Structure formats: C-alpha cells, structure tokens
Fold this protein.
Amino acid sequence: MHKPRPSRLTRIVPAAIAAVAALSLFGGVAAAAASPADASHETAGGALAAAASTPPPADVKGKTFTIGTDTTFAPFEFRSGGDLKGIDMDLIRSIAKLEGFSVNIKSLGFDAALQALQSNQVDGVIAGMSITDERKQIFDFSDPYFDSGIQMAVAKSNNDITSYKDLKGKTVAVKRGSEGEAFANSIKNKYHFTVKPLDQSATMYDDVKAGNSVAVFDDYPVLAYGIRQNNGLKAVTAKERGSSYGFAVNKGQNQELLAAFNTGLAELKANGQYQKILDRYLKAPDEAAPNSSFFALLANSFPALMKGLGLTMLATVLSLIFALIIGIVFGFFKVGSSLVLRGIATTYVAIFRGTPLLVQAFFFYFGLPQLTGVPIDVLTAGILTLSLNAGAYMTEIIRGGIQSIDPGQLEAARSLGLGYVTSMRRVVIPQAVKVMTPTFINQFVITLKDTSLLAVIGFAELTYQGQQIYASNFRTGETLLIVAALYFIVIMLLTQLSNLLDRKFNK
Amino acid sequence: MSTIHVKGLTKSFGGNDVLKGIDLDVADGEVVCVIGPSGSGKSTLLRCLNKLEEISGGSVVIDDFDLTDPKVDLNQVRQRIGMVFQHFNLFPHMSAIENIMLAPVELKKQTKAEARQSALQLLTRVGLEEKADARPASLSGGQKQRVAIARSLAMNPGIMLFDEATSALDPEMVGEVLQVIKDLAREGMTMVVVTHEMGFAREVSDRVVFMADGVICEEGTPEQIFSHPEQPRLQDFLAKVL
C-alpha cells in the first residue's frame, strides 16, 4: 500500500504550497479527531535506561513529544486489540525510552500526519515514510531506519517457481499503482508473463492461493509480515533495491529530537534490539504456526466489527430517513398534475435507478469535490449516495402505493367537499401506507446491505472492517463468514421486528 | 333553495365527445331520474354537476355558484351536493360512523362529539345504528350503500346525486336502498338519479330524462315517458328494458 506512495507524493507537494492557510485548521481538526482514544501517552522508563547509555542531547530528557503516524500500515503501524503496534511504534517507543523522553502518539492518517507536522501540530512523524528529494525540501529526515524493496512470493506448496524465469506464460498479481506493479511491468517483457493489478494485498494473496495467479510482487515488509501471519505464501527471491524509510521533523525544527532519534537508532542496532523488533513482525515462521481458533478470531475481531456494524446501522437509518423524505416529495410529484414536477421526478428516478450504486458512490466522494472544489467527508458522501439511490426507489414505492388505491376513494372524499391535501392525508395515504409497508421493509433490507458497497470509498462500516481484519490476518474466508453472519442476524431481527409492527399497526 | 341549471354542457375525453350540449334545469325539491343505454353519457353528466369531471364547454350553475368560474370555491359548492356512487366508495380503514364523521370534523363544521351525535342520527335514519362501529368490509352491499348515503348527507346538502346506486347490489338488497332514496325524495330533497330501475324511476320521479349519444333525447313526466314515448330510440330502449 505504501512505499514511494505516488499518490501521497503528488498530494503533499501542492498541499505544502497551496493550502498553507488551510493547514492549521486541518491540523486542528485532525488532532481533535485523534481524541484521547487515539493518543497513547507513554512515559519513558527514564533516568535508569538513559544513564546506562551514551548521554543524549540533554534537552530531550524528560520532555514529551507529540508524534504523528498513519492509521493502518501493517507491519509499521496497526491496531491490535485497541493498541497501536508495529515496527514504527516499537522503534519510537524504544528510542524514547533509551533517550529519556516521552511520546504522545497520534494516529492521524498519512496525509493528515504530514500536514500536522508542517503546521507544527506534531513534533515528528514516523509512518513508514520513504525518504524522497521532494520531502527533503519540507522536512528534515533521520538516518534511514528501514530499507524496503520489491519481493516475489508464491503459494507455499508451489515448488516450480523459484525465479523470474519460471514465470514464462504465467500471471502475476500486483497491487494497482504500487512500486510492485511498476517493477513487474518493467520486467514482464523480458520474462514473458502477464501482470494482473488488484486493489488490496489480501486480495492478491488470495488470488495466488486460489491459483488464478502463480506469484505476487509486493513490498518486502508487507509481504514478510503477511507470511509471518500465515497468509499461505512464501518468498522466493531476494528483495529488489527499494526506498528507505525515515523519521521526519519539520525543516529546521526539533533538531534535538532528530538527533536523539539517530542516537537511539544506532544504539538499538548495536545492542540487537533493532533486529529483534524487525523479527517480531517480519521473520518467517520456522514451522507453520497454527492459526488461532475460529473463536479466538471471532473474539479478536468482534470490537472492530461491532464498530463497523454501528456505522452500518447509522448510515442505513439516516439514509432511509432522507430517502423517505425524498420519496414522499418526488412520489407526490409523480402522482400530481404538474407536468414539470412530474418530469423532474421521472428524470431523478431514471438517473438513480439507471446507474449503479457503486458508480454513484465514487461520483459523490471523488467526482463531486473535483467539480465543486468543496471536499466531502466519507460519511456525508456515503449517506448522500444511499439517500439519493434509495430515494429513487422510495419515490416509486410511494407512487405505486398511492396509485394502487382506487381513484373512487379520492373522488368520494372530494365529493364531500374535502380539499386535495385533506383527502390524501385522511383517506388515500393511510390506505397506501398499508399497501407500501412490505415494500418499505424490503427497501430497508436492501439499503442496509447496500451500505457494504461504501467500503470502496473507505467508509468504515461492517464490510470495510472485515476487509481490514483479513488484510492483516489473511483469514479471508472465516472473516467474511463472520461478517455475513452479522448481516444475516441483524437483517433477520429487523425484518421480524418490522413485520411485527406491520401486523400491529396495519391490521 | 337548491337548484341546478345546466346550459350547453359539453364534455370530451381526448377526441371523444361524451356530452354534446346538454340543457337541464332542476327546480328546488324536484326529483329527476336520468335513464338511457350504457355509454349515453348519464354518469358523465352527473359527475359534471359537482365537477368531478372537468367541464369542456357550456355552464353548470348550482344555486348561485357557476362551476365554470375559476374563482369559485369548489369545496364549498361540493358541501351542498351529496353524491352516492355505484361502488359505494366507503373508506375501508374507518368504521361506518367514522366515514360519516370525517367531513364535518375535518371541515370544522362540528366538534367530534356533535359529529358523532349527528352521524348516529343519520345511521338511524338509514336503519343501521347498530352497525356504527363496523368496518365496511363486514357490511353487506346494501348496508354499505346505506352508510354511503348517510355519509353523503353528513354535510347537510340540499342536492343529492345518485350514480347507479343499486347497480352493484344483489337483487335482494336493491329494495332497502331504494326505500332510503324514496324517503329522501319525500322529504323534499332536490335529486338527480341515474338509474336502471325503471319501476323506481316511474314511482319516484317528478320528471324523467332519457339520454342517448350525449344528448337529451326526450324528457317529461313519468307518465309521458313510460306510457307515451314519442322518439323511436326511447321506444326501442323501453322495449328492451321493460
């Protein structure tokens, strides 16, 4: 996922030049969003450890530094049981302990962390960040603490493919837009293989295990971590030379922190702790260490999945409320006598029923901000998409419901001298609601399931949480089974509840 | 004083002329029965009288209200006209008495308690006071139509329109509904009754109108129409139905 991260590079440069005014604001928001839960404040072991080592620059001792990092970039930083873990986290904590300072870690996301650093909201950033010439213009980097590079892996049981030469006529999986893809493309003509770009590491590994591709080209640390997690692969080539990662501070600032990092890093390398940290995440298991049990997986993933389920329900309920409002307005446009309003409603329904939900989600999240210049957060984009999509179906449900009522009902009400609105409210709509209730329940279930499509724009609902989990433990099948079961249980319960209410109120 | 004045009324659906110039005056307290073959425009004429159908041409004046005047308050005029439909059109989600109370309460003519009182009286009048809380689905066709008549009387109209009120009923239930209509006629209600019940028309009418092909073909007293029909089309029609 990371590495030179071309998208991040291109994004950070204009951000530095153009968005100076916005930075402090954004940094503030990001820092606020990080909240107590995301900020783990750790006190250093302190004087004893420091005394035993070379004296560090005196002025970091006893100080607390705020360090920004990414949200999830295994094996450098990721959450496990609520705690931030990973190579970056272990390194910065060990160095802080050695050098006698404290760190307050804020998990902000990669771009937000860099912006926070520029606006001095954080003192340093460690986030699996490649040292590049562009970034050196803005930041001061430490000595490289990790050398990355591309490596090839095949299924554990595969003994036929041991070098690039064996790839002739075969298919190789790579991550779209990654260095691995660029490397694969650079040698595919020489070795005569086909490149198949996929979106996620877990998907690539599954593709290899399923035999659709014979090998995968991925970043060495990501691959090594996956193998350590029993993803069913093995590395078969040495890593190609790649970029190096560094710890960064703002240009010309916090030099004592930078110096302390370098000193600490050198010491960790000297005393063997550095290698221990790498081995903890990257060393291939000697034996195929057995996976934890299904129930352990269930217990471990439950908190994240529940959080996702909460967001799924939130998005469903909000979207359905908006969809209902939209449906009522446009539904009445459709049964009304105004040709213009009917045309508007018909066009709206045609557009949103006639295009895929996935395309709509991409459009609202990525396309709309480019057209309007106003950024949109993922929850807003997701709910906007679902509301407008479900709204189109609601419009048709309401139109159909109203039109299913015998026109004689409205005539009878009007012949009594009741106005149109009163007649609809007292006579037609109560009957239409009864007719519509089963279709409403149906739409409710459909919209709930449709929220899963919002995973593609990074909305952290249930499916997304599931993807995050198997992206780090590579137990795709079991994780998806749990996710599916959760959807099933919730939908069953809600359907039963809806039917109960239907029977109670629509006798 | 409840009167109807129709002059040169035309109505077309698309290119189809259903009414081709109708002149009809109904005096206060007069009972007019409209007869004629299917498709002759009887029901359309009736529905133009309270503007359930848009009027294509000519004029309809109810009391002092010209229905073709765009400024006229239709809801006001419709409160003066009760209408009874072939298929009853009772509101199925309300009980019999709620059907009757709806208009007076919604139009703020009566409080709920008053409306309930009057509705009970109306139900008594049509002989269904014990069915006050029954849903329409549990009533027979004849009972439904009597409730519908009671409902159309709730706003205390001076004019009643009956659109083939007994056509959807089983034969044994026709009598009870016709009896209610006869009672209304005797009380001096101004009425226009579209019907296929020739015996009833003969008995209850002050005047009978025979329609064919969107025009009034012949009109007169029941005696004239039924015993001395002049137009061949009326003679033809009567030969078929009597």
Summary: The first helix of chain A runs from residue 6 to 18. The longest strand of chain A covers residues 64-69. Chain A has a mean pLDDT of 84.
